[in-house]
Prior knowledge:
By secondary structure, this protein is an alpha+beta fold. Helices cover 32% and strands 19% of the residues. The strands form 2 sheets. Strands 1-7-8-9-10-6 form a 6-stranded mixed sheet. A 4-stranded mixed sheet has the order 3-2-4-5. α1 packs across α3 and α3 crosses α5. It is elongated, with a radius of gyration of 19 Å. Mean pLDDT is 78; it is low at 5-36 and 50-65.
Amino acid sequence: CLQLSRCLPPFAPPCAGPMVPSPRLRVAPCAARTLRRRAHSTVLAAAALAIGTAVVALGAGMATALPPADCGQFSMRICGKCIKRSAFDPTETLQELERGAKQAGWPAPAVVRGGCVRACQWPPNVELVYGGNNMAIVVDGMSDKELHFKSFVEVDTEGEATRAFGLASQLMVKRCEFQIQVDRSSGDSLGIQVGMQDGATLLVEAIAEGAVERWNEQHPGEAVAPGDRIVEVNGVRTLDDMLNECKKQELLDLSVRRR
C-alpha cells in the first residue's frame, strides 16, 4: 500500500553539515567545523522555532485560498553590492539555516547572491524572490521600511539574518503546503510510491490506484502529483513516525509540499 524507493540518500559535499540519520546511512559531521556548528546551533533553533510557530498557527484544517506555490521557486537574494559596504555578511548564516531547515524537512528558500535592491543606504539587504523573473515578495512581519523596498534591510547580525529567514520560511509554509485527508478505513491502499532520499520527507514518485488517487479525482485543485513531498501525517513530521501513520487503516491527514 505504501511503496518505498530503494534509492540511497545522496552523500553530502565535504563539510556540508551533519546528515539526518536514516536506516541506511549515518555520516559524521566534518570535524574541522564542529566548533562553528555549535556556535550556530542557537541560530538554527531560533529559526526552527519561528517556522514551527507558523505551522501551529495555520492549523491542520487550513484552506488554501490560492493554488499551492512551487517551493523550489523561492530564493533569498543577498545584495552583492551591500556586502562590500557592511561589516557583516549574512551569507554564511543564511546558508547554515537553509541546510538545517532542509535536513529537518522544513521549507527553505535557496540562498543566492544578487544585484542591488535599491536600499543600499541600509546594508546588508536580503529579498525573498519567486520564479524565473525573481519577483520580490512582501512578507508578513516586515517593517514599514522593508515593506517599502520589498526587502529585508540592515541584516547586519546573526539575529537579523535568523529573523529574515524565519519570516521567509513562514510564508513558504503558507504558500507551498496544503492539507489533504484520505480514507483508508475500508482497507484501501494509500496508492503511492515514495522515496526517502532526504531523510526527512516522503517524496511522491508515482501514484497508483488507492486512497490518494481517489482524493485527486474529487479535489483536482489540490491533487497530489509526482514530485510533491509529504511532510506531515496525522500531526507528526519525523520520517519513521510518518511511515507508521501511513500504514494505519483509518482517516489520514497529510500535509503536502508542492515540489
